[in-house]
Amino acid sequence: MTDHTHGAAGADPTDVETVRARGELDWEDAQEFVRRLTTALERSPRLLVVDLAEVTFADSSVLHGLLIAHGRMADAGGRLVLAGPLREPVRRLLDLAAATGYLHLAADAETAVRSASGTSVTRSPRTPPV
Which one of 19, 30, 36, 126 has the fewest beta carbons within 10 angstroms of its own beta carbon? Predict the structure, then answer.
């Protein structure tokens, strides 16, 4: 299950989009998740927060959607930040794909929103995973 929020407390609402997901994100559920990411990207935010704190499982289609969204945000001069804490199955998916060094990570959604100022987030290298 996913939901989408426009704006965030303490931030310019036109600059921040949040997509929250919960439960298991298998291939079928990932399709809705990717649609939510696409909807958020269409608003051209400066920051896209993807809150995965309540996700208990995610498959490679979720990872693919995140990497595409990350690339689109970077191309537009914005930033996508994954908010945790990430549960072990999600962390393992990101680790196996070497995506934890590529995507921006924040301890939680509030920290991710504060990252709009460029602090409190793990920075990623320029080269995507292979």
Answer: 126
pTM exceeds 0.85 for this model: no
Range of the domain at 106: 2-7+16-117
Consecutive 10-residue averages of pLDDT for the chain (130 residues): 50 78 94 96 96 97 97 96 97 95 94 74 42
* Interatomic CA distance for residues 53 and 90, integer angstroms: 9
- Tell me the CATH number at 38: 3.30.750.24
**Listed residue (96, 110, 108, 34) closest to 70, CA to CA:** 34
Domains in the chain: how many in total?
A: 1
At how many degrees (to 10) do helices 27-42 and 60-75 cross?
Answer: 10
Q: Decide if 125 is inside a domain.
A: no
